Amino acid sequence: MTTDAIIVAGHCCLDIIPSFASTADGALYPGKLVDVGPAVLAPGGTVSNVGLALSRLGAPVRMVGKIGDDHFGRLLLALYAAHDPALMRDMIVAKCEATSYSVVISPPGSDRIFLHCSGANHTFSAANLLAQSFDSAAILHFGYPPLMRGMYRDGGVDLAAIMLDARQRGLFTSLDMALPDPASEAGQVDWRAVLQRVLPFADAFLPSIEETLFMLDRAQYDKLSARYGAGGVIAGVEATLLARLADELLSWGARLVGLKLGDQGFYLRTAKDLGPAPLLKPVEWANREILVPCFLTTVAGTTGAGDATIAGLLTALLAGMAPEATVRSAVAVGAYSVEHVDATSGIPSWEEAQERLKTEWSACPMRLLLPGWQWDAMAKVWYGPDDRMRGAAL
């Protein structure tokens, strides 16, 4: 694997994760005391989740986030240092600001509930990142701008400046989102306008299907959320929606769109003309449409699973893998993540993940398929009707 580093920047926080002996269905209401077990204290947010996952996979990584000079901030730095002292080097410590934290309520069999304070993330600016050295870096991954006021105010000017600067330095640029509280300031932002400003400078855009719907088709998101609950939107998503959303994002300038689909896996769609995109060989990556199902595993917690998936994808890109192997590797790393209650302690070495992929690792049932999709038993992926490599692969 190349020694070029992956810079992971954006949102970081401390996760406080109470443990549950059983499901908490119907138990969370005002005035109720819920008996829980010891809490796990773990680094959270993109910087922590993707950064530590990359480090565990063996990829060279630098982490750039902003914390306060308070107890939570010192604890977060100590957790980084326990993994690798070098991971603290580029962190920004702001005086008189609060470190971000999340209380993650993740009972078995249920999706997560977050109680979140963005803290110093809100004052993160383009200047904070552009002051960093990008020497020996190959990729910039930026995550969770909806939880960072400085990244979405003024139509996302600072976020666009960060991505443009990295693009001009020759880095592969990657962007992930987070789902904002609909009633919050971020929930009222015109995200279509922000994305139209930013995506011309994003080689890869890697949101969840929920985040994508919220930002591109709020009416549909609200309809599905009302019917299935905010954590169950995927249950109402139809396969035709995936290509429609991805095509719109590609039309705004993204070269690679990867939609995280929860238990339905990962959907990849790429532009017909990739232009001079680092790491994306046009002969392999142009005009692709691939769907990889999730792997069956025992779920202990879903915190950080999407970030782990992104870490797997970025590591595979850095290693020069083909699209099929890249997406399967991404989904595999995400599967490892959910086998533990926190985001990163279950992440294996890259070699271990690749060995497990060679086994007959069972996949979850798929429902997001349309007539014309084809299963390739050798590549172990579904190809969309218009995938330009499908005929050759089959």
What would your notes on this structure say?
34% of the residues lie in helices and 19% in strands. The chain has 394 residues and is of the alpha/beta class. It folds into two domains: 5-11 and 47-63 and 127-393, UDP-N-acetylmuramoyl-L-alanine:D-glutamate ligase (3-Layer(aba) Sandwich); 12-46 and 64-124, no CATH class. A ten-stranded mixed sheet has the order 4-1-9-10-11-12-13-14-16-15, with helices on both faces. The chain starts with a strand and ends with a helix. The model has no long low-confidence stretch (mean pLDDT 92).
Fold blueprint:
Blueprint: E1 5-10, E2 13-19, E3 37-44, H1 45-57, E4 61-64, E5 66-68, H2 71-83, E6 92-94, E7 101-105, E8 113-117, H3 126-130, E9 137-143, H4 149-152, H5 157-168, E10 172-176, H6 191-198, E11 204-205, H7 209-216, H8 218-228, H9 239-251, E12 256-260, E13 266-270, H10 282-285, E14 289-292, H11 305-318, H12 323-338, H13 350-357, E15 374-376, E16 381-383, H14 390-393
Parallel strand pairs: 1-4, 1-9, 2-7, 5-6, 9-10, 10-11, 11-12
Antiparallel strand pairs: 2-3, 7-8, 12-13, 13-14, 14-16, 15-16
Helix pairs in contact: 1-11, 7-8, 11-12, 12-13
What's a concise summary of this model?
The chain is α/β, with parallel strands linked by helices and 394 residues long.
What integer value in Å does the Rg equal?
Answer: 20 Å
- Looking at CATH, the homologous superfamily of the largest domain is Ribokinase
Distance between the termini: 29 Å
Proportion of β residues? 15-25%
Instruction: Please estimate the helix content.
Output: 25-40%
Tally of contiguous helical segments: 14
The largest sheet, given as strand count, sense and whether it forms a barrel, is:
10 strands, mixed
